[in-house]
Amino acid sequence: MKTAIATVSISGDLKEKLAAIAAAGFSGVEIFENDFLAFDGGPREVGQMVRDHGLEISLYQPFRDFEGMPEPQRSRTFDRAERKFDVMAELGTDLMLVCSNVSPISLGGIDRAAADFRELGERAARRGLKIGYEALAWGRHVSDHRDAWEVVRRADHPAVGVILDSFHTLARGIDPETIRSIPGDRIAFIQLADAPKIDMDLLYWSRHFRNMPGEGDLDVPAFMRAVMATGYQGVVSLEIFNDQFRGGSPKSIAVDGYRSLVNLMDGVRRREPSIAVDLPAMPDRIAAKGIEFVEFTANETEAGELGGLFAAMGFRKAGRHVSKDVSLWRQGEINLVVNTEREGFAHAAYLVHGTSVCDIGLKVEDATATLERARALKAEPFEQPVGPGELKIPAIRGVGAGIMHFLDDESELRNVWDIEFRVEESDDASETPAGEPADGPLPGAGLTRIDHIAQTMNYEEMLTWTLFYTAIFATRRTPMVDIVDPGGLIRSQAIETADGSLRITLNGAENRKTLAGHFIAESFGSSVQHLAFSTDDIFATAERLKAHGFAPLAITANYYDDLEARFGLDPDFADRLKAENILYDRDGDGGEYFQLYSPNYGEGFFFEIVERRGGYDGYGAANAQFRIAAQKRSLRPKGMPRG
Ligand SMILES: O=C(O)c1ccc(O)c(O)c1
Ligand SMILES: [Mg+2]
After folding, report:
1. Average pLDDT over residues 300-313
2. Tell me, what's the ipTM?
3. Could you say which of 158, 529, 533, 551 has the lowest number of CB atoms within 10 Å?
4. Binding of a divalent metal cation: at which residues (predicted)?
5. Which residue's CA lies nearest to atom 9 of ligand 1?
6. Is the pLDDT of residue 208 over 90?
7. In which region does residue 164 sit, left (phi positive, over 0), alpha (psi from -120 to 50) or beta (all else)?
8. What is the pTM of this model?
9. What is the CATH number of the domain that holds 321?
10. Is the CB of 61 under 6 A from ligand 1?
11. Residue 158's CB: how many other CB atoms inside 10 A?
12. Does the C-beta of 33 come closer than 6 Å to ligand 1?
């Protein structure tokens, strides 16, 4: 499959754009005219530069305001086209995009436009070139791909085809199934873009808010299935006008683009099995079953403090690694690992981020298949030397700074805890805090599993993260919600499996004054900001935690007054929530959510304990503002210091 991306989609100057596009794995580029005009070098030089990167120029664009002009403008547009043909010849490309006319003086008329294209086709063919006609969603007379195709059909010239751009079709709500009646060999080129559903002017929406297929809300898969059903075998290209991308990292945006294309085409192939898609085989999106472990990196002193925190939440020390300075803490199905090694990835992470979460272990259907799909989607495999008695666990670099490991029940990996960890005589007894009976292990606090992991990133990187998770794993993303922090806005969105077995919340920080922004700044980009543990009985857990010496985050009395009024709560029930500092939420179907927080440790890391009742599927977004305000009051208590 030939893949391309328009230079306009990537930030940087033309050189930087090409380097990033080539490194990401594309086979070609669309040279966007303004990128060429801004370049200080002739068309031959640009063509050579593109080919030196191993790329081809798949398209030159756009040529504007061509068809249906009155004289004398009509003759001028043909002269202008000839000049562009000269440039194309020197660039070394044979296809030019002509977008539908937006000029108020254009006359309209399908046959007039067809006659103009027939003549342009004739002139192009004489020079061995071709042209493609694209309907802009805001074109003066042609704004629908069906009309563009009718013009092309009537032009009836082998050098003239139609160009379909998913944005223009889908943003106007045109049924993509209408593409299926166009002959595939009359489609000159395919441009793809997604976009979030926003109610705004089409032109503004198109020029500022497009994003990669899978990052927005348009049905790009339906569009692409229809295209492939026509027998189209040409280039599949991305054309993304996006303000954030223009300012983003060229390398990472280019990889996102390639990832989104491969993910899209793999999905098309699975839904249209009779259609040939020339793409290497890869496993389908991976069924993720949950979070098997979370690993912290720390120095010895801080590891002791972390252990104290874990013990206060009812965790017990359950083992020590056979060959490394790594200990395991357990409760229910939760595995927390603390790594104090002086070498390897965890130590490197410690030096950069301080005490923090450095690795996440996901339980998946098939760990090897997960690595294979991740690789096909340009994720970076991670390996470090396997020590004596250790298993080789498939792993990749996450989108942030951390490593993501994959475990399954199908292989030896299911025995990782028994193979790599040993229970030490002293483990249980030595962790018994003062004041508790020392004659046996402390009972836990009723924590059962990890409900969710919350990762924080700069707002501009959120699309990269959502694409990463949704392309590799069979997950969906929830709508974005705004969370008000006294210092600014946080955008929050969850990635989750349909059954809720894996939940990751992504929090995009716009500045450093927010708790989330402070956390990423102070931890130099550590991503995991909090872990949420599940309990089946939040009140019993709250009591147990108290007995363990856990001090929950204090919530204001005002919050509880409002809560009682808002939900019409029984006053005794509201008092109980208040006494335990438990936050509460209820959904439209009577599902209930209970949340209990730890204070901050260090610069904004914390734990949460939740109970879901009656199928509640959210994350208590309505409570986040009050929790954050409380946490900000408690910032920098005694606790987890930073490197
Ligand atoms: O916004 C535009 O003008 C524009 C130009 C060329 C395209 O291919 C397109 O989709 C939009
Ligand atoms: Mg386009």
Report:
1. 94
2. 0.99
3. 158
4. 134, 165, 191, 239
5. 136
6. yes
7. beta
8. 0.94
9. 3.10.180.10
10. yes
11. 10
12. no
